[in-house]
Design goal:
2 helices; alpha+beta; three-stranded antiparallel β-sheet
């Protein structure tokens, strides 16, 4: 289950960003996962919850945005949503499609509270 190591990487990346941005707390983490990334969102969520239990991340929700596979046909230039390989155009049925989305695996945002001055907190999104 490589989703567990991905969850570890997410926690490590958010921890670094929290420190770099001077956040006192994190209230939500958002990730984007392309349908062609090979990552199973439910397994990633399970891994994240297992790793975050009994840590500073316990209770911080991991929100997952599923990104569809989309691209442009080389033949008719139609922008199409794809379901499975081979990636042939749904409009003309002939052209090969150049992928533009669907392979993402990234931290999209971190919501938290930034301490700009001691005793004074400001909410923000990274």
């Amino acid at each position: 289950m490589h989703e567990l190591s991905i969850a570890e990487s997410i926690i490590a990346g958010v921890s670094r960003e929290k420190k770099q941005q001077g956040l006192s707390s994190v209230s939500e983490i958002g990730v984007r996962i392309g349908v062609l990334s090979g990552v199973f969102p439910d397994a990633l969520l399970f891994g994240y919850e297992a790793l975050s239990a009994d840590s500073e991340w316990a209770g911080v929700p991991l929100k997952i945005e599923n990104v569809p596979a989309q691209g442009t046909c080389r033949s008719c230039r139609a922008f199409v949503t794809l379901s499975a390989p081979p990636f042939l155009c749904q409009e003309c049925g002939v052209g090969i499609v150049d992928l533009e989305s669907g392979q993402e695996l990234e931290i999209a945002y971190i919501e938290g509270v930034r301490n700009s001055n001691p005793g004074k907190a400001a909410e923000g999104e990274i």
